[in-house]
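Listing 4. Sequential folding, example run.
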Amino acid sequence: MLRKLLLVGVTAGYAWVIWRMTLTPHVFTEAENSFVLRAVAWVQQLPHGAWFTYDRTEFLANVAMFVPVGLIAALWLPRRWWVLGAVVAVGLSVGIEFAQAVYLPYRVADPRDVLSNGMGGLLGATFVGFVRSLLPERRRRRPLRARTV
């Protein structure tokens, strides 16, 4: 019971994070956006840092943002159905991109986001599947039945 309650809390909290990052007008303030751009420029000045562009940073951030989505979804699912956690992440991503394209003119819908979010969801769900494969299966308690003589 405590496990389910904790999972409900984590799910609700991370749902708020996803909403805040994907379905609100501005993800970052001007100062935060300026900081990100300066950080990317700094990394690009390092040896072999030219590959680190803003677009790649955004792609990797989308992967990282959806790792917990796949992880949480897989935790809700039965042990052997962990891979559906990635399907849930892709479905959520498609819904977000649809909402951005149709209802949110201030946001840019990008099909690459579905790819990166799906990769993150797959990583999270795979982690849950791997850890569960290492753990012994829990035995289900059978309800007590009255004996009939």
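-- end of first protein; second protein begins --
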Amino acid sequence: MTRSAILYGRPPAVFDPPAGAIQTSPLVPGSAALEALAPGSIDSAMIYAPPGVVERRHVLALVLRALRPGGRLDVMAPKDKGGSRLRKELQGFGLTFEETAKAHHRRAIAVRPETIEGLDQAITEGGPRRLDAIDAWSQPGVFAWDRVDPGSALLLDHLPDLSGAGADLGCGWGALARAVLTSPQVTALRLVDLDRRAIEAARRNIEDGRAAFDWADARLLAEDADLDFVIANPPFHDGGAEDRRLGQAFIRKAAGMLKPGGVLWIVANRHLPYEKELTAAFKRVRPVADAGGYKVLEAVK
């Protein structure tokens, strides 16, 4: 790759993200893979740093590896979501930088020196790995990356053997899909997630010819009304803030993807008011379980 500018994430407009920069966030379908950039191949980078400590150091290390010596690093994060730690983390790589505060963010601008401390360690610590606790591949930054989250666990406890063709919207590393595919009556399962890292992990975890993998925004999928079932543990945070519209959009999308008589199995936090959306989109809605702050519902189209 010729030297150029890269962008990671979607910085607020107040920081003037560079036009024409190559997007490298795994949360933007179709973006370039940051880890695949050749060392020293990039002139400049603007990074909207993720909130997780291990994930953030991993991203910073990959960017610093890709930057040429003398290249410009511009990184920012909300003060309460990693911004207050940027100084210490950049110092840990041996960088000198200018730090400013703007729009409830911390911002640091640095020039990449010839040598960087701790790159390999940070890249390894934040990279994909196999976890014995879940018997699966995953990576920091993926939702519930090192466990089966309580909502999915509740859904697994009540999910029947499904049949026919279906989809897993927001599949993560594949915990739900792995269970669904134990049913021999399932003929096809489409795993969809916005996070490329999740899709790559799921692909490694599920070696089954019935499975297909789609790095995509589930809200933008075609509605062909040809599926027998959909399973979903939809997100309800966007950029760290609760956004109920995400789950509501998943419900509407599932209804459009299902054939008449098709079924949606969904789990959500108890306080999220999805029943109205479900009732509007489906012929029959049944509460199945309510425990530990989560609820499982079945909806038939």
